[in-house]
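This week, study the protein below.
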Amino acid sequence: MLTLQFIPYGELSSLSSEKKIQKLLRIVREDKIVLLEGKLGINEKSELIRKTMEEIDDKFKGIEIEDLDLEKKDKAFFEKIRTIFINFILGSRKGMTIIGPASIIKEIKKDPDKIQLFTEDTKKKKKK
């Protein structure tokens, strides 16, 4: 069975980067695909990948991660400044991040306006 777990922005916003990463990795190691409201910071994303690489073993094959920016690219100058200020104060709520185990996610395709997620049939894998 494929399990998706939605995590709203507010659930992680008060956590330190280290705690966010621990929580996300714990969920992904349970063979769940995380749908995260908002995006991780650049440092958080690279730290998540680094921690994942350290934890790879026979049972855990790593993660697939991709984010989608829902911001309009053709905003007026003052609207861009306003958005930057709001994101600085409140965090980047715009967008979505998908994180899942590499053993389940076959491929994530990203277009400017959408993400397509292709998964492996886990039942076939277990029969082998």
